[in-house]
Amino acid sequence: MEKMEKIVSLCKRRGFIFQGSEIYGGLSGMWDYGPLGVALRDKITALWWKHFVLDREDMYGIDAALIMNPVVWKASGHVDGFSDPLVECDKCKRRFRADQIKDLKICSECGGKLSEPRQFNMMFKTFIGASEDEAGTVYLRPETAQGMFVNFKNILDTFHPKLPFGMAQMGKAFRNEISPRDFLFRVREFEQMEIEYFIRESEWEKYFEYWRSEMKKWIADIGLKSSNIHELEVPEGERAHYSKRTIDFEYTFPFGRKELYGLAYRTDFDLKSHQTTSGVSLEYYDPSVDGQAGGGERFIPHVIEPTFGIGRTILAVLCESYDEDELGGETRAVLRLPKNLAPVSVAVFPLLKNKEGLVSKAREIYKMLKKESISVTFDDNGNIGKRYRRQDEIGTPYCVTVDFETLENDTVTIRDRDTGEQKRVKAGEIISAIR
Description:
By secondary structure, this protein is an alpha+beta fold. Helices cover 30% and strands 29% of the residues. It has 2 domains: 3-67 and 145-318, Bira Bifunctional Protein, Domain 2 (BirA Bifunctional Protein, domain 2), CATH 3.30.930.10; 344-434, Rossmann fold (3-Layer(aba) Sandwich).
């Protein structure tokens, strides 16, 4: 079985990721997060928020609505330009992205004839209110960025920030992808972690390089090897309409080198477009000129945009962490997740499930760790070897076993996920030992 198939199988078997609407045959491009997937996602997003918002003085977090006034998407260019080239088979009626197939004439599925390419808008359209007509047409947002641009004036009026400053948002976005594929990589419902960093035009190159460096630090923080990261300078003809410069950070997935994150210089395109369309001033006012009080300057800031996909981050972390090795004479699958990202940090076992003294002591330790806000699970299902293998597969860094010696001298064994080594410590020293 190929590595990607093994990861998908592990995610289903251990409760990370499930196919959306699975009992009804699923729905293409939709995935549900199980308990361990939720835990992994929440640790990644909490780390991102701490790294880029809480630990900084120049960042303002918001959470904009999924559905906005449809004029937002007209002003941003999405209504007219957010599209992919589409071809359709006249026999099986399957649709393909024209820029992702080799033969633009013959269907790879049934051999039928393909239509001429046409542009397909990827925004999900729906209706607001009681009537389903053009006046009630709205869209599910295809990106989180516009929610920050339309709230730019609110941040200025409320917090009076000084340039440079940023706005950050995490949330869902929706794209009606023609060909969802590669597990979590290309889906129709996804989550983004995004920043719009507002600057003076004259300083865009300095801050572009600054955010390039910050993104590299984040990539290292989540345990992705630099050898698997590749920077692609996107050529002019392939950049988004708003971008003057874009770098894609690509990751070597099992299915090839694909985009993980993006860094774009969006100029003043968005704020200027919304100012023109809405008639509301989105200028920034600087009361000083060249540092001298008494002057004043009004201008529309330019923007550097670092973009991070949550699903692609999770997928990259899983691909980076999945491993197989020999331990104790057996082949095991193990997720070598960074310890701060593991869904479960500690698993507590009683050596035997039917020995009351062992179980009660294990429960006592489990509750002690719970009170310390450590992500912990209690496991007494199966023999000790199977429990170790189960925890290895979900990436649990430490397993604490309560055995008969525990009842004699109040010590337990702590087993390390990566090495399999075990050491005895006092029960009261477990927290300091694992930290």
